[in-house]
């Protein structure tokens, strides 16, 4: 399944150099980080609503929207899903309470 994340990383990088008229992702890059963060917030709220009130398919759909927009925002900061996967891997075998208490700002 990580293949899809790699494909998305490649597409996101490719779209940085495309016209905003050519793709939705390119239009997000053009609109900038503040706009894209607003989309992340919007998608987060939609996911919360789906979890509380909607079908499993709607939950999955909204989660995919949130992940996607989060990946676009991360790419604007020169980060990718690989950075997140590395961080998650570091947390294996560490108590969630300990990890939270040891976070660095």
Low-confidence stretches: none
Average pLDDT reading: 92
Q: Main sheet, how many strands, which sense, barrel?
A: none
| Strand element count | 0
Number of helices: 6
N-to-C CA distance: 30 Å
CATH H-level superfamily: MazG-like
Just name the CATH architecture.
Answer: Orthogonal Bundle
- Share of β-strand residues: under 5%
Q: Give me the secondary-structure category.
A: mainly alpha
What pattern of helices and strands is seen along the backbone?
A: HHHHHH
Query: How many domains is the backbone divided into?
Result: 1
Helix content: over 70%
CATH class, anyone?
Mainly Alpha
**Radius of gyration, whole Å:** 16 Å
Outline type: globular
CATH fold category name: Helix Hairpins
Structure in words:
The longest helix is centred in the middle third of the chain and has 21 residues. Helices cover 77% and strands 0% of the residues. The chain is an all-alpha fold and 105 residues long. The protein has one domain: Helix Hairpins (Orthogonal Bundle), CATH 1.10.287. The chain is built from six helices and no strands.
What's the short story on this structure?
By secondary structure, the chain is mainly α. The protein has helices at 2-15, 24-31, 33-53, 56-76, 81-91, 96-101. It has one domain: Orthogonal Bundle (Helix Hairpins).
């Amino acid at each position: 399944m990580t293949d899809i994340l790699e494909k998305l990383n490649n597409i996101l990088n490719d779209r940085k150099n495309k016209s905003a008229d050519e793709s939705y992702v390119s239009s997000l890059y053009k609109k900038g980080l503040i706009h894209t963060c607003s989309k992340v917030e919007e998608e987060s709220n939609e996911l919360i609503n789906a979890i509380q009130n909607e079908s499993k398919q709607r939950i999955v759909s909204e989660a995919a929207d949130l992940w996607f927009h989060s990946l676009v925002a991360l790419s604007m900061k020169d980060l990718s899903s690989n950075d997140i996967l590395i961080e998650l891997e570091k947390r294996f075998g560490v108590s969630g309470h300990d990890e939270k208490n040891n976070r660095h700002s």
